[in-house]
Specification:
There is one protein chain. With 138 residues, this protein is mainly alpha-helical. It folds into two domains: 1-52, no CATH class; 74-138, no CATH class. 57% of the residues lie in helices and 3% in strands. It has six helices and two strands. It has helices at 2-6, 11-17, 23-27, 54-89, 99-108, 119-133, and strands spanning 30-31, 39-40. The chain has a two-stranded antiparallel ribbon. Helix 4 packs antiparallel against helix 6. The structure holds iron/sulfur cluster.
Length: 138
């Protein structure tokens, strides 16, 4: 393997060095949300210090992981939209590629593009930023 030749380790190597994996973590019944933990659910101790049972701990871990992932993608999307806007305004020296996609998105947002050149891209970026930070969907 090329990484091995170069002296790098990869995720598979690190995974192997982590064995055996923690059974509580694998089952999702380890909670370290607050400083009273970490709590691990067992038959002897079926609830964490706060009273959370296995179902609540698993559901909470899943939701928190989902929220964190969504926030990360949202932050990356915001950076991309700002780059699009600044490129259209000439503040950033980047070419705007994928004209068909930009036009299709403008149409989906109801933005009139005919004869407006790059101003319409700024409108699109503003619409996307507005959409991304809207607290309510409807
Ligand atoms: S189970 Fe409750 S007490 Fe234990 S770490 Fe999680 S939130 Fe804190």
């Amino acid at each position: 393997m090329r990484a091995e030749q170069l002296g790098f380790d990869v995720a598979f190597d690190r995974f192997d060095r982590q064995k055996p994996q923690c059974g509580f973590g694998l089952a999702g019944v380890c909670c370290k949300i607050c400083n009273m933990g970490p709590c691990r659910v067992t038959e002897k101790a079926p609830r964490g210090v706060c009273g959370a049972d296995a179902d609540l701990i698993v559901a909470r871990n899943l939701l928190r992981a989902t929220a964190a992932g969504t926030a990360q993608h949202g932050a990356r999307a915001r950076e991309t939209i700002l780059a699009l806007k600044w490129a259209a305004q000439g503040k950033l020296d980047l070419p705007i590629l994928g004209a068909q996609k930009v036009l299709a998105t403008e149409k989906a947002f109801g933005i009139e593009a005919e004869g407006r050149a790059l101003n319409v891209v700024v409108d699109l970026a503003d619409a996307l930023l507005d959409d991304q930070s809207r607290a309510e969907r409807f």
